[in-house]
Amino acid sequence: MHVLIAAVPYRTEHWLDLLRVLVRRPDIEITFFTASTSDRSRQALEYLAETFPHFRFHVAPRLIGEEGTGHMASVMYRPGSARVLKSRRPDVLHIIGEPAYLSTAQMLALRKRYWPDVPVTMYAAQNVVTRFPFPFPSLEQRAYDAIDCALPITPAAENVLRTKGYRGQVRLVPLGVDTELFQPVAMPLPSHPFTVGFVGWFTRYKGIGDLLAAARQIDCDLLFVGSGSLSEEIQQEAARRPGRIELHSWVDRRDLPALLARMDVLALPSVELVQRNVAPWIGIPLREQFGRVLVEAMACGVPVVGSDVGELPYVIGSAGLIFRAGNPAALATRLAQIRDDPALAQRLGAAGQTRAQLFSWSRIADSLCQTWQGLLDTRLRVGHEGMFRTTTPWGTAPAPLPIREKEGQTL
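Above: the chain's sequence. Below: its structure in token form.
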């Protein structure tokens, strides 16, 4: 089965782990198409192409970038750059990009022109119903008509699709974690002060101010990994609390598990903001769409605490603690619970490891391959596109990954 995967620019890094799993499957041939990826990602793609003969990739130039407009929806591949793909007909087209994106419209136009009968699947992460200005709504509806199966990463993303008019098949396929890389450290670590960790962008959206305030209340150490506009604020706090705050810039993913192992708890205290970077009169609520670092920490056996913003409660489930966003005192209470109750910390660490397995890239690759093969089998059985799309359940397909937790139910 030949799958053409098209990734919207600047999103390549998120999917390298999945590609590494897919290329190891002898029954899958992958062509990966993206634009203006980072040097590190390009090196990783080159390695995969050299190592696995059934993997190839193309990096196209961009016509419009996010930095010029403030939103990913406006990113475009340079016209004509995708024609390099036309000679190798895929069995499935998988688009990593939202339905309203210009890059999505470009890939669907390519498919319509060269392989109109090829099934289309599409990743979807938007967890807020956003009404874009012209011409994006019409592009969005055209995408809904072309998609054979949408793959939202959370139930909220599925709800957005349905609210905005998508009526086709849906299968829940979350973001993942490399459970071979992210594992508990085998060797015991020397004793150290209670340490709260944070990994990500140092921005107001991530609740950095709330985390600093909560740490003062319980007098804990802090370990930051990342970068961003609030780096100076963190450095100023470190100067006020000598030896209690450690700051690391972005590290190679292979080095992240060792840093996570030094944390007694990982906190993600995100808050909801309204963006106005597309146009001053258009406010776009910004909520956490997933919070993958939570899954990475859980896979390492590190207890996690997250705010109640966006999809963080869904990702954490019963394997961590939740607090009300924007409330440093509530965050401090949750952190103190883990500090003062070793048995609770141990239970949460073990529950996190179990839950993280549900998000393993290997399991997600299984779900994707089953979905793609199901589309091909159905297309062959039905014989024409008009009878193909349906809003009925999959039937013989396995249960989607992972589903909502019900009260009293453990995933």
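Residues 384-411 have pLDDT under 50 and may be disordered.
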